[in-house]
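re the bet — no i am not wrong, look at it urself. input seq straight from the record:
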Amino acid sequence: MSTNTSINTIIFDLGGVLLDWNPRYVYHDSYFESKEMSEHFFNNICTHAWNEEQDAGRSIVDATQLLVEQFPEWEQPIRDYYGRWTEMLKGPIHETVEILRELKNSGKYKIYALTNWQGDLFHIALVRYNFLHWFDGRVVSGDEKMRKPFPEFYNLLLNRYDVNPSEAIFIDDSLRNIKGAEAVGIKGIHFQSPGQLKKDLESYKIL
């Protein structure tokens, strides 16, 4: 990776980078009668694509009722997806939060959050975790009715906060979303662990 000392803006994804969120904390090994039922549930009912519609602004009430009507035999697991959503939000990824703290305290960078997150559910995280208030600005998909990896979502942040994409780095645990950022000219770091993130930031001479 080549170094670049012109970076003045760092953009963080939240879930999977700074916060540990996973539906499997609710739908653990003993939730369903079999692994096949679990895989069927995630592959055909409460799918990733279904959840992303909520990230893009659909209400969790409408989303839940839609599936209950389509799959009445799966009603309780469907209702548990948002009824027990807070159990899926385990808490901060502390090592990454410390990296965020170090960057913030350096005073050298503007720091923003760009997240795919249903608006009402994001408020729960805002109440729970003070570090979500450290950013110079946040762009939440559920509030904006658009999401990653579509270019208009990245451009919304760039335009709103007057960010030059060539002077920014975006950190996300989704390679798809990294490619979306790179398509609009933002450098990307594909997050895999706090240790790897620290090394990548050091290679850019940011840490």
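see?? Strands lie at 9-12, 19-21, 89-92, 110-115, 137-140, 168-172, 187-190. told u. also The mean pLDDT is 96. so pay up
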